[in-house]
Design the sequence.
């Protein structure tokens, strides 16, 4: 007798075999049917969501988390619209990336194919349930979804609607499988399903991601922690620097591509800092700086060593003074999380040096780090932002949910 | 105080930062210098290798392993030649895969960059030491090499020669770091260096690979186990089938792309099997078949369920009879290891169906599975053959040792 997770992965595997055979038209038909079903089932979904929200309030969960958990007609309409957008995207599956003929006549090509079974472990945003399913299904994969226990009723309701649409369209209902036992034991078991799950993508806070990396035997794509820096070079356009910093820090606080730390060249800090501080203070941002920064502004409080490595996800920013671009690069490469880093400069050589030497998924010149996003990058979708170097790095669109296989056509070749 | 592995990874990281800045000409100069040094130091290397071979004989290690362990002037010359070939290859680092301008004017490009620190865990083939270093160095990475304890003197000697050449060329000697403590504890620690090692590539038997997958928090690329099948379809050219099977089984026995199992359509088995058995028996291959196969030839002994899942790496092959291509595909997808599978057929639809539905790194029509190899595929090098789906699948050339980063050029863009 297999375990609960074994049963789920067996079903997902069988569904994935069928999904891989589906044409783009069939997948798009399925996505549109699911979108329609979500809207037509919104009353049921909202009722179930209300149970989760009620329970969360009773447990005294903080308001920002309750906001993430709460669904509304608008949010369900957005989920449906997201699926329609996924339907409208090009299908990456089946693309032959190249084909060459070898001297012995073998024709060797590399073709994009689905990964198979994609596992996603996330927290209490029920909209991820529909979104992750849509991206996995469009790429011919089966999805095993393990959401947070706080969202279990909402997730069950969404999955019920998705399965209803799949059934009507004569597609396998096992293309979406919800891990309904949200215990830690079952999550741990999911991480050990090497061979049953092809990739595990954790979406959530740093603790969740670290736990998956530590315990998984399934290949993991790490996503999302961003201790992002903006470096104001000696030659920066100060007004541009201030605008970009204001945007990158304050346009949205709790996101991984928000700026958490400022690095400023000592040759420009006296002139630049007042403008930057003025803009940040207008948004009530707490500014924690090193000695030289503190000396320049009464609005800056002293930073500690811990600040340099902290992703605040809040209205706080740190300020570090450096005497050279090399010092800036060394500081950033020491403390960053491999997400997004930006230099503000007019200097050609410093722009290239920063892009060459900073080790991160996205390295910017004269732009806000907030652009690191699948939609902003033009992918039309995003399953997460990879901060690791294997398989996918940076915003992940549909292609990140595919692998390749070599297809070889011969006429009797032997070695 | 950091541990031994922490010290090694810190040194490797610092070396990797420098390696990433090297131009192709510098890297090629280094590779050629190392090649020369290996040859000029061959006496020292052979003396040290003799100690390992002696010890292995005393321990009663089997002859095939002693053959792998043993170096000779010819093998050292081959190692040097391998490095010269790597020098002659195109450098993948720095290639911009695409660059597009977004509606807001941001120019977003994706650039190929080194992975950073590559860890390789292997068994007792000392030639892997020079080869793995060469591939990692060409791609701007630092290499941490953990070879088998049986080859420690040989590996130390090779690494000494490599470091000597690096020193002469004023390159960091930490670009190659040998784990000289070959205890299991230190290997275990190496697998936990998440953040210090960017990727771990195990090269060796199934047990080694399973151990690394099970215990590593560092992203792993699984390589090399191959339970490869050849399916003889009802419409096959029987002479071609027999030739390909003879080649795939017997041209080299102990390799991962050798054929381990034959699947034959019942409509052709009576005619095809005698020819196939004749060719295999001429090479003294033991043939283990299902009931229908056994009934057709006195040279076939009964197979057990265990045979279908076994990678023999020996002069043994299994034979399974099927009544349809669907049954063949289901059998292969159940028992294969995701390496290489081939169909012998004249039927257009069956050829495409097999390529579409078989889940493996390389899927062949009318050719030997023995071609799954970086050199045969035209990559000019091979760090291993990936049997997983993330990052790289199939033979891995230099590109598999790189990642990408997004480079974004703006002129003040904010969200």
Sequence:
């Amino acid at each position: 007798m297999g375990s609960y997770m074994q049963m789920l992965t067996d079903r997902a595997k069988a569904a994935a075999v069928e999904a891989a055979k589906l044409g783009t038209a069939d997948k798009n038909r399925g996505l549109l049917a699911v979108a329609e079903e979500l809207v037509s089932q919104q009353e049921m979904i909202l009722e179930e969501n209300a149970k989760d929200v009620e329970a969360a309030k009773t447990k005294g969960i903080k308001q920002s988390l309750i906001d993430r958990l709460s669904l509304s007609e608008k949010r369900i309409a957005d989920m449906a619209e997201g699926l329609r957008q996924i339907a409208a995207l090009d299908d990456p599956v089946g693309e032959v990336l190249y084909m060459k003929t070898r001297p012995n006549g073998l024709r060797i090509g590399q073709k994009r194919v689905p990964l198979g079974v994609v596992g996603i472990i996330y927290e209490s945003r029920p909209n991820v349930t529909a979104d992750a399913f849509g991206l996995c299904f469009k790429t011919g994969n089966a999805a095993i979804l393990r959401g947070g226990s706080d969202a279990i009723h909402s997730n069950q309701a969404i999955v019920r609607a998705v399965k209803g649409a799949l059934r009507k369209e004569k597609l396998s209902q096992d293309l979406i499988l919800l891990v309904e036992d949200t215990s830690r034991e079952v999550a741990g078991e999911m991480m050990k399903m090497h061979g049953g799950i092809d990739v595990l993508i954790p979406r959530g806070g740093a603790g969740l991601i670290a736990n998956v990396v530590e315990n998984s035997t399934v290949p993991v794509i790490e996503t999302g922690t961003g201790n992002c820096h903006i470096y104001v070079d000696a030659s920066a356009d100060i007004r541009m620097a201030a605008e970009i910093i204001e945007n990158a820090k304050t346009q949205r606080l709790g996101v991984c591509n928000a700026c958490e730390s400022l690095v400023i060249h000592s040759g420009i800090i006296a002139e630049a800092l007042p403008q930057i501080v003025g803009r940040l203070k207008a948004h009530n941002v707490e500014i924690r700086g090193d000695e030289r920064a503190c000396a320049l502004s009464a609005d800056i409080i002293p930073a500690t060593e811990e600040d340099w490595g902290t992703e605040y996800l809040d209205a706080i920013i740190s300020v570090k003074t450096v005497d050279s671009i090399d010092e800036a690069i060394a500081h950033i490469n020491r403390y960053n999380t491999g997400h997004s880093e930006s230099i503000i400069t007019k200097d050609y050589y410093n722009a290239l040096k920063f892009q060459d030497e900073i080790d991160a998924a996205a390295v910017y010149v004269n732009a806000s780090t907030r652009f690191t996003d699948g939609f902003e990058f033009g992918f039309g979708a995003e399953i997460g932002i990879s901060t690791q170097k294997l398989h996918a790095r940076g915003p992940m669109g549909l292609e990140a949910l595919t692998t390749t296989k070599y297809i070889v056509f011969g006429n009797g070749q032997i070695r």
